[in-house]
Amino acid sequence: MSRPRLTIGTFGDVGFQTAPNGRVTARARYRDWDGKSRLVQATGDTKRAAEQALKARLAERSLFQQSGIGLSPDSTFPDLVAYWLEDLDLEGRLSKTTRQLYERNMRTLALPVFKDLTLREIGVARCDRFLMQLAKQSYNRAKQARVALRLAFELAVRHEVLPRNPMDHVSRLRKPPSTPNALTPAEVNAIRAAITYWEAGRSPSGPKPDGQLGAIAEVMLGTSARIGEALAIRRRDIDVASATPSIRITGTIVSHRGEPTMRQDHPKTAKSRRTVAIPSFTAEAVRRRLARLDDASLDAFLFCSREGTPVTTNNVRRQLRHVLDLAGIEGVTPHMFRRTVATAISNEAGVDLAAELLGHTDPKITIQHYIRRNEMVDPRTAAMLDRAFGKEG
């Protein structure tokens, strides 16, 4: 009668052999994940010790032995990173920008610390200490490192290379308290004046103005668009002829490493596509800009290079920095225009409308990251207190 075939992950009868020095070797046939049966052995001072050592080795092999991926708990951390990045590419779910961000964060933040360690050596305590030390330098960098590490170790768990994800039990990162910074109307007008002065050619230094920066600022102020979304606006997205002028936000400008700058056919998220009614100051800037466009096609960019190609977000940031430095205005970024719009709308009509304008699905995001808190308490309290405690006579 033939012996029944082992199923994957199981082992056969254990055999023993005693060496002249008294050490006992325990052996058993084990059927690996590739379906092949292999001899596995372990030694001990006694038969019982050898058998226990063999069973421990078989249990570990059963848990971690994998087919085709070439990873085990004794693989190095760089091996996992390489496999994780390859898996991201195969999955093809991430945008190129996010994929490059993950790789950059892993290679610049985590790899220098963990590159000489095997996967089994990277536990909760080591990860926790790494993130706490990094958070002392920068909360944002610690947060980005945590995301990349969690995803990589999650892949190792999913493919049964590791029994658990060490990132599941690290301490929570505590974000330093901060208040979103927005511009006041006076500051907005000072920025407008600085840009107008520069575009008029009165500045003694810097790149020659192309007349677009002022219009870009007016579009961001009138739509709440991110800088990449504003630069992605095409003639077909604009309606300034109707009673209610509007701009449709349908894409963003992206610059992937090693590739030309291009228009992505959806904003930061697909859900943030929206049509925005624009105020008169934006409509006026857009009409002037349209009148200067040489390309009459519907796909022509509202803001473009002399060749008609997309303007890079870095170029606009650099121009804005240069202009405001000349004017002695510090700390202003394109994204501050978005926070300024959110704060103004929230003060006038509430956070829900501000979130809708910004393309947020959750108003909590708008409150936490975009609206500057108004420290002025409702002045009606003064009249109430007068009525309650005012002096008689």
TrEMBL record:
Residues 178-384 form the Tyr recombinase domain. This is Site-specific integrase. Keywords: DNA integration, DNA recombination, DNA-binding. PANTHER family: INTEGRASE_RECOMBINASE PROTEIN MJ0367-RELATED, PHAGE INTEGRASE-RELATED. InterPro entries: CB, DNA_brk_join_enz, Integrase-like_cat_sf, Integrase_catalytic, Integrase_recombinase_N, Integrase_SAM-like_N, Tyrosine_recombinase_XerCD. The keyword DNA-binding applies. It comes from Gulosibacter molinativorax. Belongs to the 'phage' integrase family. Pfam families: Phage_int_SAM_3 (PF14659), Phage_integrase (PF00589). Gene3D superfamilies: 1.10.150.130, Intergrase catalytic core. CDD domains: INT_ICEBs1_C_like. Residues 75-157 form the Core-binding (CB) domain. Signal peptide: none annotated.
